[in-house]
Amino acid sequence: MLDAISKVPRHMFMDSGFIDHAYQDKAFPISSGQTISQPFTVAFQTQLLQIKEGDKILEIGTGSGYQAAVLCEMGAKLYTIERIKELYRKTSSFLPSISYNPKKMIYGDGFKGYLDEAPYDGIIVTAGAPVVPENLLLQLKINGKMVIPLGESVQKMLRYKKISTNEYDIEDFGDFQFVPMLKDKI
Ligand code: SAH
To answer: CATH: 3.40.50.150, 3.40.50.720, 1.10.760.10, 3.40.50.1240. Which one for 2-176?
Structure first.
C-alpha cells in the first residue's frame, strides 16, 4: 500500500499555490472549498479497506482524485462519486490524463451509492458523514467492508464488515477531521 502511495505524484493533484507543500503530511485546499486528504489519512483508510487486486470498490467524494489514484494504483476496479459538478468535471478529465482509469466517475449524491454496479467488495467514504448511509450498507457484498468517518465536527473512523444481509461488525479506529458529506449534487 505504501508502495502505491509513493507512486502517485501528489503535486499534480494540487493547485499551483500549494505545490511546494505537496509532500507534507497535511490536507490542502482544492477548488470549490474542498480539500485533498492528508497522505496519512489516505494511507490509513486504504489500509482499513484491505483490498485485493481486482476488488470492486466504491469511493464517495472523488475530490481531487488523489485517493482514487491510490486505489487504481493498487488494482481496484473503482467507481467514484462526486457531488460538485466542477470537481467532477475537472477530475474526470485529469485522472485519465495521468493514466489512472477508474471504471466510472459519477456525478451524483454519494448517500445514494451507485446501485448499477452493486454489490461492492469495499466502500470508502472520504467526507465526514453525519449518519451512516443505509444505501451504502445495502450495496456491500457479504464480507465486504465500508470505511467511513462518522460524525459532525469530529469524525470517528469506523469500519463496517458485513457478516450477513443485515448484520455488521463495527470497529472504531479513532478521531479524524473531514469536510462534511452533504446531500444532493450541486
Ligand atoms: N477523496 C478526495 C477527498 C476530497 S474531500 C481526495 O482524495 O481528494 C471530500 C469530497 O467529498 C469533496 O470533494 C466533496 O465535494 C465530496 N462530497 C461531499 N458530500 C458528498 C456526497 N454526498 N456525494 C459525493 N461526494 C460528496
So the answer is: 3.40.50.150
Distance 171 CA to ligand 1 centre (A): 23
DSSP summary character for residue 25: S
pLDDT in tens, 105-146: 999 999 999 999 999 999 999 999 999 999 999 999 999 999
pTM: 0.97
The CA-based angle 102-62-79, given to 5 degrees, is 35
Question: 90 and 1 in contact (C-beta within 8 Å)?
Answer: no
Q: Which of the following is catalytic: 31, 37, 64, 164? A: 37
Cα(41) to centroid(ligand 1), Å? 14
* Nearest atom within ligand 1 for CA of residue 81: 24
Ligand 1 pocket test: which of 31, 57, 181 has the largest number of ligand atoms within 8 Å of its C-beta?
A: 181
Which of 133, 102, 138 has its CA nearest to residue 118? 138
37 is catalytic: yes
